[in-house]
Amino acid sequence: MINIPKGTKDALPSEIYKWHFVEDTARRVSEKYGFKEIRTPVFEYTELFSRGVGDTTDVVTKEMYTFLDKGGRSVTLRPEGTAGVARAFIENGLAGGAMPFKTYYLISAFRYERPQAGRLREFHQFGAELYGAEGPEADAEAIVFAYRFLREIGVTTAVRLRINSIGCPACRAKYQEALRDYFRPHLAEMCEDCRSRFDKNPMRMIDCKEEGCKKYTLAAPRMLDFLCEDCKAHFEGVKALLTAAGVSYDVDPSIVRGLDYYSRTVFEFTSDALGAQSTVLGGGRYDTLLGQLGAKPTPAVGFAAGIERLLMLLDALRVSPAERKADCYLLGMDRASRQKAFLLAEELRSEGLVCETDLLGRSVKAQFKYADKLGARYVVVLGEEELKEGAAEVKDMETSASARVRFGALAQYIRQRRKKDNG
Asked: Is the pTM for the entire model greater than 0.85?
């Protein structure tokens, strides 16, 4: 027996309607905001992530699936979506088109880390990116877009929006020096990761999850106290727009996000319903990323949500999307009626109905049981008498009521019954 690799999970047909619900909602809301889908390769040259995501992040230093291809080139399975979209934006000359450039993606991504609930080695993301707008309006649109998406899948009552500003490179340099001055006396008592981050990027120390480090990180200086006037004005603009849009938020100075390309606004939607794995969607501004990849600096903002995490939240909140079940099952009592059922099923499918019929030569009793397992509301019964009359007996599986319906009127009859059932 060959088993599934550790840290991966099958999405089975019995559960896939939940995935479709989240993905279809993502597409629908994206289109409302003018975001068009992009699809990028599942693997890229490793340099893209080391330069873009940052060589001080856990993603790059510990979690990437990196290997040499047959040509001896280092390639990496994508650990996130933003860097690949940035590469595509540059390589395809998309800056020459209509700006701002808006795109979204639904992808699988890969990180080698300890598997746990809501955190797998292969995971799936919905993300959106907006390039070319540097004002607070772009940040606010990204956040409100994310909020609307969460609202339309039915989880906003259980999520909390937390925002922060981590400044621009100029004011962040002063903040990093203040952090070094603060952490220096405590370095010997902090974890190895924090000690390695001290020189390269002390802001990453604030995000440390080690209990022994938290007593120092919680009392560390706050970036908000070091913002330059431009960054202060930008953050105030974002807050004002969110308030005007009716989106409540908390300012949380502890949010720095885990990737090096962020600047200015960062945000997270979190939920207590998931316990320790509380972040369901996160993002922010990353004005320096395209410049780091060798292109003309271009302002950008975006977000990503883990689909597995969202599905966990839906389950925790008992939010159950509707599953499309079979509209009808066509039951044949003998060989001739089963053949007619096969042909009628094709006619009904062409009319937009979901139909099933017997493929295994089951008995009439077994077919009724199978129709019940499928959740079919109506069973269309065909036998010798029905073939002669050109009409079928249509049985309502919930009420046990039945009606005689001409073959040519079956689609209309079932649609009308469905409409009545749905109110």
From this structure: yes
